[in-house]
Amino acid sequence: MDELETSYKQSSLTFRGVLFILKRHIRGILIIILASVFAGGCSALFFVKNNYTGQVYISAEYTNNDEAGNNSGTLQMQVNTISDFLKTNELKKNVIDKLNANKEEKQKYELKDLENVTVKNSGNSSIFTISFSDSDSAFVISTLNAYLDAAIEMSKKENANPIVKDSLVKGNETSVPYLVKDSQNKIQILIIFIISGVVIGIIYAFIFNAFDQKIHSKEVLKNNYNINIIGTIPEFCEYSTTLENKQNDKE
After folding, report:
1. What is the domain range of residue 234?
2. What is the pLDDT of residues 90-102, one digit of tens each?
3. How many Cα atoms within 13 Å fall on the side-chain side of residue 9?
4. 113: region left, alpha or beta (phi > 0 left; psi from -120 to 50 alpha)
């Protein structure tokens, strides 16, 4: 009998055996998948926050000479100088001061809250795009507005870099913050739960099958063992129920 059980377990590892195992436990697999989808949906809905990304632009006007008549350098140097200025901690500190103007001590923002600020310039154009992401949409909008105000104010100071002062003051064109709601995190969480449900369901089927010592199909005996099958006996509960129904019909 041990040889039969070993042979049966080995036969279950064939492609047909795997399909047979999955088919036999399909109900349990589907329940696990549905439970995972439900858990993932609840997690994405109640525990994962939406992320908001806002953008504004500020324009610059490049010149060959600054206000003092000095050479402003190449276009690439001017672009790099303005980009570096828009990324400086000094500018970010001014932004924080503006955001904290009407805040209580416990509610005040810090420099680390602006770590997600990015500045981009494509193809040495006159447009610099400032982006910021956070789960609080109001904070994103107020931060971008404060960023524009602080950049223009600092560029107008007497001790400002001549290139920055000349380019931004002359350009001095800005946009209204453009906000985009990003639900990608929620979609990723849901996909992860679905994949996990499928994997756990398949693992459940094979673990359950490993402890199951029954032979559930006469095809298994025909295909794997040299045994002549004369007939099969139905399950007791099913047979007894059928017999009882027939007796009741006769009465």
Report:
1. 2-47+186-250
2. 999 999 999 998 7
3. 13
4. alpha
